[in-house]
Amino acid sequence: MAAVLLSYIFGASAVTAQYVPLPWAYTQNESVVRVSVNAGVQYQTMIGGGCSGAFGVACDQTGAHGLSPTNQQLVSNYLFDENLGGLSILRNRIGSSPTDGILGSCPSTPSSTLNFTSLGANDSTADSCQLKLTQQALLANPDLFIYADAWSAPGCFKTDETDINGGLICGVRGSNCTEDWRQAYADYLVQYVKLYEEKGINVSLLGAYNEPDFNPVTYASMESDGFQAKDFLEILYPTVKKYRNDLEVSCCDATGARQERSILYELEQAGGGALYDVATWHNYQSNPERAFNSQGQPNMQTEYADGSGPWNTTWDTTGQLAEGLQWAMYM
């Protein structure tokens, strides 16, 4: 008998019985819960969700590494089509250096005519490829919300005479410059919007700052507290509204929600609480644990990364910060 059993276990001709799992069943002892949803009640207005092609990322998307025009548009469709990725916001960086900005040369005085240039001679690479990415995104989503945001003013408008290493825009309190370059910087920002409009593209939101509470030293940056932001926004806001009343102005893309609240508090104390339309902030240093101290303006998180390293393709495997489920919870 043992030999027969072993022949069934080890023999090549043995037939193995297939395990068939029983269907899962659950008996609900509790009473049925009925949920009623009133679609007419609004609890929160969403501007949307988005991404950015700043610092060369737009060039990666638009063919710098050999992606064909057909596949470039396909990727943009995956990102921005409302039935696919569903992204509805694109944040473009307004360049400020001699190589990526729109100022041909520094004027001798603030009252001199500003020597503006174009976005670039070739539309495929213009504005660090952001123009082409914007055009592709608009094909996928004609209702795209475009946020144009500067990391810094051109260096000759600032205390440190370079667009990197922080510094202040000349003319705000504490800058101690011999000239006031605030209007020149406001005109510079509006000119960027005009250049996009010449391409048939309407910018929705315009910003003058990126993380003004932080000096990264090595890349474009400009510092500001809320009082200094008031000094500039009192020039920028009417300049923008005179040009195009529906063009919104942001403040101030701080490094965290708490840091943004500090800037907004100082801005309000300085009398500038109405000099912006959207409060913009990042999520690196602090989370949005309570409502923002604005005068009723909406707020928008415009940048965040978990800092955990390379792109993570998994949904929920190891519980890492960069996995899809974690990002879903952030949302």
Question: How would you summarize this macromolecular structure in one to three sentences?
Answer:
One of its GO terms (biological process) is glucosylceramide catabolic process. The protein has a seven-stranded parallel sheet.
Structural write-up:
It is a single chain. This protein is an alpha/beta fold and 331 residues long. It contains 8 helices and 7 strands, in the order H-E-H-H-E-H-E-H-E-H-E-H-E-E-H. Strand 2, helix 4 (130-140) and strand 3 (145-150) form a beta-alpha-beta unit. The chain starts with a helix and ends with a helix.
Name some characteristics of this structure.
single chain, 7-stranded parallel β-sheet, disordered N terminus, 331 residues, 7 strands, glycosidase, 8 helices, alpha/beta, hydrolase
Spell out the blueprint of helices and strands.
Blueprint: H1 2-10, E1 50-52, H2 57-61, H3 69-80, E2 89-94, H4 130-140, E3 145-150, H5 182-197, E4 205-207, H6 226-243, E5 248-254, H7 257-269, E6 278-282, E7 299-303, H8 324-330
Helix pairs in contact: 3-4, 5-6, 6-7
GO biological process, one term: glucosylceramide catabolic process
Protein name: Glycosyl hydrolase family 30 TIM-barrel domain-containing protein
Keywords: Glycosidase, Hydrolase, Signal
